[in-house]
Amino acid sequence: MTTSSRWEEFKISMQPRIKEWKFMLRRMRESPLSIAGIAIIVGFIIIALLAPVLAPPTNSDPFIIPSDDEISKLDPTPIPPSTKHLFGTTGIHQYDIYYACIWGTITAFRVGITTVAISLIIGLTVGVAAAYYGGMADEVLMRFTDIIIAFPGLILAMALVIAIPSTFSLNISLILTVILGLTVLFMFLKRVNMKITAPLLIIFIVALVSLFNPINLDFNINRLDKVLIALWLIGWPSYARVIRGEVLRVKNEDFVEAAKAAGASDLRIVMKHLLPNSIYPVLIMASLDTGSIVLTAAALSFLGLGAPTNYADWGQIIQRSQTWIYAGGNLVRNMHVFLIPGIFIFVFVLGWNLLGDAFRDVLDPTLRRR
Amino acid sequence: MGLATYVIRRLIFLIPVLLGVTVLIFALTMFFSPTQRALLYIRNPQALRPEAIQGVIDKYHLNDPFYVQYFVWLSEILKGNFGWSKSANMPVLSAIAVKFPATFEIIMFAAPVIVILGLYLGIQSAVHRDTIVDHITRTTSIIGWSLPSFWLGLVLLAIFYGYLGWCPPGRLSSDAQNFVVSGQFTKYTGLYILDGFLNGQLWISWDAFRHVILPATVIIVIDIALIVRVARSSMLEALTKAYVIAARAKGLTEKEVINKHARRNALIPVVTISGLLVGGLITGVTITETVFGFGGLGNWAATSAQHLDIPSVLGFAMFTAIVFVITNLIVDILYAYIDPRIRLT
After folding, report:
1. Is B155 close to A146, i.e. CB distance below 8 A?
2. pLDDT tens track for A237-286
3. Which of A107, A247, A314, B41 could tie A131 with a disulfide, CB 3.0–4.6 Å?
4. Is residue A319 part of a domain?
5. Residue A8, domain member (yes or no)
């Protein structure tokens, strides 16, 4: 077959997909809510990109909020918005709220996007493995998922944030041995064909070598990283459940049987046949989740478990108002401290929720063609 | 199969879940050194001597392999000894009993409004699809869903407490609190609004009501979106079904079609999500309670998690798991009531 005819074939095979994309774009354009969502998110992306211009960093680490300890010593009450401090300051240490809001945008994107991406990867792996292999593997993986779901998420996240140590030393040989052990166990249980023996052998040799020459990976984990890790660990189970159901539905279709009969490997069947036909509900969930993950992270910060006090993060600034709850006068006088970062959180989350809603309307086949 | 056997079978399913929860908590505690974990057992700060810590380590086998530790620990729990809650300064089980009424007081106001108003708005939104009613309902509910609960709480407090002085934070004002603990007041239910009536002290009820109204509002504003969304989409789906077309074709009024034919069929997903929501509310209005200093279950769980008060966190997690299984059970029984075709098996 020549290249040009292959190209033609590719173009023909892509035609329905392009048509689909055009249809989706048209639907998105028709809905004012989704346009508002896109506008909000684009606005925040611009803020994040222009952060060094909008709020020039004074510190070598741009996420450290500039403070004014001189004034703080004389008068530790929050300074209301002025030309010097556009959104005012926080009181103790007099951190600049404008700076925190601008750089906090980057923190929010980081929290939302990495958490959704990693939770998706874990959830998809667990769910697909459970559904595809079935039997014992399904039983074990899904019961584990059930336990995490049964646990109150925020409380688990809080406990994890506290329990995760600040320095972490991972022994590579230990990890490799665990991976190896699990794989062999899995192969034994499922009698998988031995195609992957070569990589296993390499892992085995590396594990053996590193057993005698211990290699340690040292990590320093700051408090924001702990929040991220906690959110990854609590976020995946719902994805795992949904994708499992979808894969079970698709698994017995003729095209999967055909691929198996043609001798396709498990990985190929999953990547080429199962995932493309089952991933949409999970993607819709993920786009709707991004906002609530940012809210959870902000809530953890509000409880004093999030980013450190000098780190640019919206929830962390609001946490300072907690001390005035029983003093209504102070709450009113220092309103700017929680009002402005709160508006940032709210608009950011609103943007993601509108976008997620629009995605759902466009992608969900039961809703969209009415 | 009878309802009783069905219920019993479902409750037996609880056991593996609860065991799983204990494993999870136990795995979390394994991040700490034996000495750090020994400190969790010591109530009295004066007992913080090295030999006392060593004694605790020996008593609870904290230096043994993890499976020995797990079984020692689990056997204590199976005896009903959930341990001492440092953050509440009382045994874990009594802490749950004391703090639950506070949380329930908020839920009592919030949950009916969320479910009934949410259902009404969702159905109206579906019936008047793509009209101004639909747009307003959807937009306001998505706005509510996007609000950070702690921020909404602070804003409401600033307005209704700071400016107007109507609704203070906490659970009771100080004079009401003094009266409640003075001995002249009997706590029949632990719900101060109800107890105020039962004691003939209406001002206590009024005081409790003033304190509960803001947290309940926060929960309503934020969580109603969930019900509206589900009610709307399931009603939209029901309206396209053949039996609705048939009902219209035989000349029924639109009101009858909606109220008698479509609505009942749209209820099932709403019941599911309501069950999950109320279960979630009972166990976790953590943030809202913390903002208002309300002293309920969620507030207690948050403090315990912050101070790594393991017995409390475990007790709370067990309680949550039980509440979830029971609400799911109620939901399944309600299904059979709404849709006679469903049989409990």
Report:
1. no
2. 889 988 888 888 888 888 888 888 888 787 888 888 888 888 878 887 88
3. A247
4. yes
5. no
Co-location of A87 and A235 in the same domain: yes
Half-sphere exposure of A303 (CA within 13 A, CB side): 32
Residues of A within 8 A of B236 (CB-CB) are 367, 370
Rounded to the nearest angstrom, the minimum Cα separation between A26 and chain B is: 17
C-alpha distances (whole Å) from B200 to each of A156, A247, A280, B180, B185 are: 42, 61, 58, 13, 10
pLDDT in tens, A120-135: 999 998 988 888 887 7
Q: Clarify whether residues A274 and A233 are in a common domain.
A: yes
Using the 8-state DSSP alphabet, how is residue A157 labeled? H
* Residue A96: pLDDT band with limits 50, 70, 90: confident
- Is A100 among the domain residues? yes
Partner-chain contact B150 A144, CB within 8 Å: no
Is the Cβ–Cβ distance between A257 and A250 less than 8 Å? no
Q: Which domains does chain B have, with CATH numbers?
A: 90-344 (1.10.3720.10)
CATH (domain of A160) = 1.10.3720.10
In chain B, residues with a C-beta closer than 8 Å to the C-beta of A150 are: 17, 20-21, 320-321, 324
Same domain flag for A143 and A247: yes
Chain B hits for A34, CB-CB cut-off 8 Å, are none
3 state DSSP class of A167: strand
A60: its two tokens = 């070598």
- Best mutation target among A35, A147, A238 (most B Cβ atoms within 10 Å) is A147
Q: How far is B145 from chain A (nearest CA, A)?
A: 8
The chain-wide mean pLDDT, for chain B, equals 82
Comparing CA positions, the residue from B1, B280, B253 lying closest to residue B115 is B280
Mean model confidence pLDDT for chain A: 80
Lookup result for tokens 């506070």 = B102
Q: How many domains does chain A have?
A: 2
DSSP code for B199: T
Tokens 């969502």 belong to which residue?
A37
Residues A293 and A174 grouped into a single domain:
no
Residue of B146, B297, B306 for testing the chain A interface, max A β-carbons within 10 Å: B146
- The pTM of the full predicted model, rounded to 2 decimals, is 0.83
**CB atoms A143 and B20 under 8 Å:** yes
Domain with A192, as residue range(s), is 168-220
Same domain? A216 vs A311: no
Residue A30, in any domain of the structure: yes
State both tokens at B331.
Answer: 């939901």
Record: contact A325-B17, CB cut-off 8 A: no
Shortest Cα distance, chain B CAs vs residue A147, angstroms: 6
pLDDT in tens, B75-133: 877 777 777 777 778 888 888 888 888 898 899 899 999 999 999 999 999 888 888 88
Same domain, A231 and A324: yes
Same domain, A162 and A291: yes
